[in-house]
Specification:
about 140 residues, mainly beta, Immunoglobulin-like
């Protein structure tokens, strides 16, 4: 009689693999955030569409570019150093240079109705869905 044992990973081992994948995806080999993780974002859905908040401390409106195309929002900008070439930098933890972050949504966006504001280093973007992408309730009739 041939008996086969199915080897299954323990729940702890599965959890450890998932956490390892999460940290390796977010942090690069040197322990710093990966290029795709900046700026930090919060994204959520509302009945009308979507909202995005991005942390952009120190940037001004004229240093940012927002592009909405079909189902995507792209946030672009550049952090310039506050220190000069002759200065000695003892610690640099804030990012420098250009950045671009794109968020893809499950429905087409109404670019003409999108709104954005920058206040206290937080960019807030409201992105309504296209009217054709809005969910709608269908009335059910009884046939007798």
């Amino acid at each position: 009689m041939l008996t086969r044992r199915m080897v299954t990973a323990s729940p702890f081992a599965q959890f450890q693999r998932e956490m390892d994948g999460l940290f390796h995806g977010f942090f690069g080999a040197n322990g710093s955030p990966s290029a795709g993780a900046f700026p930090a974002l919060n994204v959520w859905e509302t009945p009308e569409g979507y909202r995005v908040e991005a942390e952009l401390p120190g940037l001004k409106l004229n240093e940012l570019e927002l592009v909405v195309h079909q189902r995507e929002l792209t946030i672009k900008g550049e952090y310039k150093p506050a220190f000069g070439e002759q200065d000695t930098v003892h610690r640099r933890e804030r990012p420098l240079g250009p950045f671009s972050r794109t968020v893809r949504f499950p429905a087409d966006l109404d670019a003409g109705q999108a709104r954005a504001e920058l206040k206290d280093g937080v960019l807030s973007v409201a992105l309504p869905r296209l009217a054709s992408s809005q969910p709608r309730k269908i009335e059910i009739r009884s046939i007798e």
